[in-house]
Here is the input.
Amino acid sequence: MQIKTLDTASGEVEIPPSKSLTHRFLIIAALARGLSHVKNPLDAEDTILTKDGLKMMGATFEVEGRDLLIRGTGGRFKGPGREIFLGNSGTSLRLLIPVSALGEGEFVFTGTERLKQRPVGPLLDALSALGAECSSSGGFPPATIRARGLRGGRAKIDASLSSQFVSGLLLAAPLAREEVQIEVASLASAPYVDLTVEAMREAGVEVGRDREVFVVDHGQAYRAGEYLVEGDVSSASYFWAAAAITGGRVRTLGINPASIQGDLGLLDLLVRMGCRVRHGDDWVEVEGGTLKGIDADMNGMPDMVPTLAVVAAFAGGKTRITNVAHLRIKESDRLAAVAGNLSKMGARVEELAHGLVIDGGRPLSGATINTHNDHRIAMAFAVAGLRVGGVRVDNPLCVEKSFPAFWDRLRLLYGGDE
Here is the structure.
């Protein structure tokens, strides 16, 4: 797909529902007893995979307009007798594995060749410590859980590779037979765990924390109820970046400026780079300015690295992005993918083991962007194409993983001149 340049990005864009919250509320509803109403869930490839996995495990779903009615099992899932295929959704994989251990029977989780390269070993080790019977292919999918209910107890886990290990264990913990204590070392992407804890609290489950140890008391249960999914900050980031690099003004609708979604921290970075930010109760607006490079520890918002890296290529001076080694095991090796594509465009980029250094403000030229089938690479570099002629995205359909309407929403920035 060829990206058409424009002088100044401007307008209003409706942002889709949060992918992260949709995953969590679908699972919570499936773990509750009774009927739950999940309002405004994201309908995209990853969340459909989670929904279909839960259906195979015994939860029932009914579509009601844009919403979902979900009848939960109280955690009494049943092995489906066949593999549960999860595409390349690492979130689906790492959240469904622990909750399957609450059920009865055999659950085999698999996916694409890329998913089979995404580690689950630390998660399975922690589940084993809590009484589950687990096996895998050397710590990678396919992963098999031979479930007979989860005992509970204490587990230690190294979460430097993924916060999803912790989120998955926490979601399962209330329905274990005993109290669950999870001792966490080197937690990456910590705001996603905060998101999980808040979603659990909304459903009536309390999570305690004493420094590195999360504690979930025995005997709690998820409350069937009504859960509203707010707008996705990660998806909004591409439109903020468009305003930043074109000196325009873009308002993203459906975004809660008080959200605990960690990617909201990108706004602070954009302000440091020279942008202006305004907001209302359910919208955030970014206006571009004269951009300058910054230093940014992005461990808490790794999904924003491709977005920030593209903005950095248009900013004067160096931008140093650090503490994101775990980006190498996402849908692609995102550090290598970002560095390679920016270099193709003529940017000066240094790829570090744990980050990137971008010497911005240099002339850039068009190139065919290798998305590596990664939605965040496609969307971030589509933004670059708004400023640089000749940018082509090689696999535009990969955005269906999180934002199927992305290309239609991007066209809104052209107004009537697209």
User: Anything to note?
Assistant: The chain has two domains: 10-16+232-414, 19-214. The CA atoms of residues 107 and 327 lie 28 Å apart. The mean pLDDT is 97.
